[in-house]
Amino acid sequence: MIIHEAKFIKSSPSFDLCPEPKFPEFAFIGRSNVGKSSLINMLTGRKNLAKTSGTPGKTRLINHFLINEAWYLVDLPGYGFAKTSKKNREAWEKMIYRYLENRQNLVNTFILIDARHEPMTIDLDFISWFGERGLPFVLLFTKADKPTKAKLQHNLKIYREKLLEFWEEPPLSVITSATSKRGREEVFSLIEHLMEED
Ligand code: GTP
Ligand code: MG
After folding, report:
1. From ligand 1's centre to the CA of 114, what distance in Å?
2. Which of 40, 59, 100, 117 sits CB 3.0–4.6 Å from 50 for a disulfide?
3. In this predicted model, what pLDDT tens digit does every residue of 54-83 receive, in sequence order?
């Protein structure tokens, strides 16, 4: 996919304030520091489309970007801040779950997973939440340039085993790196394919 235009539309503090659902929408979410902003910037070929916030956990906004006047890319606030209060976490859950369950033009959510580590409960729980509701998602393993090949294979294997405890087939996944641009074409062909199906 050639990105002719990537335009910031709006940061919304709640589901009700999101822009009109007039384009197919693809959301990106993951644990704090998973590499979400870097990946969005890599995919769109823009250096600073998704801003890296200095204070993680503070901004809790749903960010809409319009790509090629054709589809929305949505940068969602991440989960798993060590320092977040219970109140903040509950507010995050309310907002995100409301969005994910009700956004009518949401075609797919990309759940980002740090390829440097073995599976974390918080990620597995989040993936299960999608499974329980039958909501579509694709896993994007991030920072794949960081671990050695062996370590990467090891982490992916453990993920697969963990996921197969709940799924008959492992969920669709793409290995990515913002540094090497790995996975870019694969993510875009998925988006194109899903838009045609929609
Ligand atoms: P928050 O918005 O703060 O939760 O973080 P984020 O998920 O947007 O992550 P961000 O893109 O800000 O990246 C976090 C750190 O990981 C930064 O230091 C990035 O330079 C680094 N990083 C992100 N992607 C990659 C990657 O593909 N490879 C490598 N080696 N480092 C990466
Ligand atoms: Mg970010």
Report:
1. 10
2. 40
3. 555 555 899 999 999 999 999 999 888 767
